[in-house]
What we know:
This protein is of the alpha/beta class. The chain has helices at 30-36, 62-76, 88-99, 121-137, 142-156, 162-165, 184-193, 208-211, 213-224; strands spanning 7-10, 15-19, 41-45, 81-86, 104-110, 172-177, 197-202. Helix 2 crosses helix 3 (88-99) and helix 4 runs antiparallel to helix 5 (142-156).
Amino acid sequence: MEIQLYYQEKGTGIPLVLLHGNGENGTYFQHQIDEFSKDYRVIAVDTRGHGNSPRGSAPFTLGQFAEDLKAFLDKMGLSHVILLGFSDGGNIAMLFTLRYPGYVDRLILNGANLYPAGVHLKVQIPILLGYGITSLLALFSAQAAKNRDFLRLMVKEPHITPDDLGKIRIPVLVIVGTDDMIREKHTREIAAALPDSQLVFIEGDHFIARKNNISFNQAVRAFLEQKGRGDQK
């Protein structure tokens, strides 16, 4: 059954849709909402089961989140958007663009990964341990079950290949922190697989959009203001 996704909206112009990371909500992008609403119609969406959006009964997977986004954009009457996704939001953005390429004019991937092993082992090991523990506790605790579902997304998903990315023919900005939780080699693999991509490293960790927002926003704005073959005539 379709659910009603919660969203924040500010500004007018070309729609810029923001997708947050695992366990977060649209408020993560407060600095981007304030900055880009000067020139764009910024829409920050809470993913299913995150923030103020209901969990619903559908599978709690990145693929389902991509379908939720499709239903949301259709309801909003939006068929051409710029999509900016952070972390799992970037993974959702990739899946959505692969499934519905006509909807996305430009794509910004911040700290995304193609598969779980793209994350540094020092980060992934605690996630794996937490998933195992919450899976056991989920038998007795609703909160543990919720935490298990969040952790499962990072343990089991996504499953995207470089060949898949070769199908994305629009301009793409791949942007990450210099000390990101995503392996640098993996990020470079993503950028290399995209036919029309730019790769930018910003000083900081995984959360550069929040912690180094001035540099992050400057890089995103520079990308958005460029002319590219993905632009509408």
